[in-house]
Amino acid sequence: MRAIWKGAVAFGLVNVPVRLYSATGEHEVTLHQVHKEDGGRIRYRKFCSIDNEPVEMSDIAKGYETDDGELVVLTDEDFASLPLSTEREIEVLEFVPVDQVDPILLQKTYYLEPEKTAAKPYALLRGALEQADRVAVVKVALRQRESMAILRVRDNVIVMQTLLWPDEVRAADFPVLDADVSVRPQELAMAASLVESLAADFDPSQYEDRYAGALEQLIEAKVSSGSTRALPVPAGEEAGANGGGDVVDLLAALQRSVEKARGARGDAPAPEAEEKPAPKARKAAEKKPAAKKATDEDEPTPRKTRRKAS
Q: Is residue 18 a contact partner of residue 89, using CB atoms and an 8 Å limit?
């Protein structure tokens, strides 16, 4: 794992230098939006709604619209001037019973790893949490945002879970729940009996994501049956941004390199190199055996290798 944040836990007069690691990660299968016809990736460009011109990221700022329709533009310099009192510090505020923290407030989970020189104060904080059977309420600044969080112990590691602010939890306003509904004792007893029949100790390892598993099997089946196509190479800026240029030009350059090497050895030129392919024929050159042979005789480029690996 790679640390995403470095700072210290301020525990009274004790500072515990720590590294922060994301404790969770979703296992979803990564899919991209592509054009059905040619498989090209669907890209989204940012346009200005006033002049309808594309806008670079360096020219984008954040804006706030006031109630009377005025616009306040905030730049990176404006955000940099804002104070974050808990920056690079996890400030312990108090210790509370865990059952007083409503689970609806819980957000992202992180592991705290101590620096080598902070193993003892880390163990001290961990022991205090375990002995008190409470969680520590803290404040921390992550990604330009100040958050509440709790510290607890899990498998000998101190875990930090960020919390929503109270005003970020919406009220449940459902008038239908205020209606007078009569439940007969027999119905309640039957429901309680059903609950008892399904009672168990929670073991999440016995469950699996059937959809993700089925999707992976579907993809593997298509690969095994040959239902794949070569990754298309975007023209213009996209190809240039990846350091490549047009694939046809690349194949032509490789062909010239092979011809030059053969000429240095005194070999006769390859028949396919005697005539320059027509523009329309160039597009089919990717799939011709001759083009493949040319790339095999020269060292494969990193770009072509990456496309195969994808």
A: no
CB atoms within 10 A of CB 59: 9
Contact between 5 and 20 under an 8 Å Cβ cutoff? The reply is: yes
Dihedral over alpha carbons 150, 153, 155, 156 (to 10 degrees): 130
- Cα atoms in the Cβ-side hemisphere of radius 13 Å centred on 12: 7
The Cα 160–Cα 153 span in angstroms is 9
CB contact at 8 A, 134 and 96:
yes
Greatest CA span in the chain, whole angstroms?
A: 99
Per the structure block, which two tokens stand in for 252?
A: 């032509």
Helix 289-297 to helix 247-265 angle, to the nearest 10 degrees? 60
Alpha-helical segments (H) within the chain: 76-80, 119-132, 185-197, 210-224, 237-241, 247-265, 279-284, 289-297, 302-309
Tens digit of each residue's pLDDT, the chain (310 residues): 888 889 889 887 788 999 999 998 877 788 888 888 888 888 888 999 888 889 988 888 899 999 988 999 998 888 878 776 556 889 899 999 999 999 999 999 999 999 999 999 999 999 999 998 899 999 998 877 889 999 999 999 999 999 999 999 999 999 998 899 899 999 999 999 999 999 999 898 888 888 888 888 888 898 899 888 888 887 765 544 444 444 445 566 666 666 766 666 665 555 544 444 444 444 444 444 444 444 444 444 444 444 444 3
Angle at the Cα of 15 from the Cα atoms of 79 and 94, rounded to 5 degrees:
80
Residue 145 contacts residue 79 (beta carbons within 8 Å): no
Pairing mode of beta strands 5-11, 145-154: unpaired
Q: If you ran DSSP here, which 8-state letter would residue 169 be given?
A: S
